[in-house]
Amino acid sequence: MNIHTSLFKNVSKLVSVLLVVTSIVVPNKLYSQPEEDFKKAQFVINQLFKNKKPSSYILLSTENKEYLIVEKKENTYVEHFIIVDKNNKITKVVNNQENYDATVLNRAFNKSNYHQEYIDWKETYAPVRNAFSGGKPVYFYYRSNDGNVYGETSLTSIVHPNPIDVSVYGYLLNKLTENIN
Fold this sequence. Notes:
The protein has one domain (3-180). The protein is α+β, with helices and mostly antiparallel strands. The longest helix is centred in the N-terminal third of the chain and has 20 residues, at 3-22. It contains five helices and seven strands, in the order ααββββαβαββα.
């Protein structure tokens, strides 16, 4: 188990305990609007890459405002951090070609780790015992080099169970938070 996985599991346990012990109710604005999320994501992709989409990328957004797009290029990755204002204007772009965790990103770009259909967390997991979610709405998908979208889901920043690999989700969410603020 690498340090990211171990750290994220400990943080996940701590968040679970805090939610239960303190009875904090975090606004839970889960929405199942995959078409709207996907359209906004495509707009951001097109603006960022000027209609020259990379063949393989991962997209994670919070509230359709803050985006992390990880582009796979041969044997390396490029992380793009984007903020979009309410008028759909990109107000911040940060590109990172260094300081990424190749082990986690290699796992993230393995399509066998994802479901092929859209998953609405609220419909699929909320009825499950011990399931919880809270925080900002999050939209995620992986576009593979075969042109298909995998792992598409709408959930929240704090969620259990998570349809996305926990170490991948934790890594992406942490990177987005670190680079947007």
